[in-house]
Design brief:
heterodimer, A: 116 residues, mainly beta, 0% helix, B: 113 residues, 6-stranded mixed β-sheet
Chain lengths: 116, 113
């Protein structure tokens, strides 16, 4: 079956521009995570959704970062007024509900954002 | 908070060499532990996992044992191949809340023929 997909795969933005990154999770996966991976580093948690509810946004680095999942499926991560330090790969992952014992997170290919 | 520390890279080995990549963690309780692999140009893939102390995860010839005494989850393979060249990430899944993954910084492995 289809895995997690993300678009665009690459995005170049000028400093100060707004960007929107899309994630299509695996069908039936109610849990959705966003991670940020800086160059040469491991991914770091940004935010978590269960269906349409954003239950944890403790990892969002500033109020310029906003995520939504209005219908409990596709999610969008929006970054306003991008800064150079926002340059990173943004990863989306989805999983079965947390109550399932085998709730492995499946990752998408990521969106590489470069802010000039 | 919870954290993962893994052996710094890059690591370069010859084909058929023995591989160890060290990983230690700090956490409240006993979280599930994972190794993820990122091949060039591809996304993160789960390599193996262990959910409780003394469990051994294994896949594709790789193994790791959950050691609570030393809070470690070292990755090993007896004979590496060129196709194992990738970046390897150790991670734990937190027990509370979102059960997010906390990753180490990654270890780049290059296998020469």
């Amino acid at each position: 079956g289809a895995g997690v997909s993300q678009s665009p795969r690459y995005k170049v933005a000028k400093r100060g521009q707004d960007v929107a990154l899309r994630c299509d999770p695996i069908s039936g996966h109610v849990s959705l995570f966003w991670y940020q991976q800086a160059l040469g580093q491991g991914p770091e948690f940004l935010t978590y959704f269960q269906n349409e509810a954003q239950l944890d946004k403790s990892g969002l680095p500033s109020d310029r970062f906003f995520a939504e999942r209005p219908e409990g499926s596709v999610s969008t991560l929006k970054i306003q007024r991008t800064q150079q330090e926002d340059s990173a790969v943004y990863l989306c992952a989805s999983s079965l509900p947390l109550r399932f014992r085998d709730n492995e997170q499946f990752f998408g290919p990521g969106t590489r954002l470069t802010v000039l | 908070g919870d954290s993962v520390t893994q052996m710094e890279g890059p690591v370069t080995l010859s084909e058929e060499a023995f591989l160890t990549i060290n990983c230690t963690y700090t956490a409240t309780g006993y979280p599930s532990l994972f190794w993820y692999v990122q091949y060039p140009g591809e996304g993160l893939q789960l390599l193996l996992k262990a959910t409780k102390a003394d469990d051994k995860g294994s896949n594709k010839g790789f193994e790791a044992t959950y050691r609570k005494e030393t809070t470690s989850f070292h990755l090993e393979k007896g004979s590496v191949q060129v196709s194992d060249s990738a970046v390897y990430f150790c991670a734990l899944r937190t027990l509370q809340g979102a059960q997010k993954l906390v990753f180490g910084q990654g270890t780049r492995l290059t296998i020469n023929p």
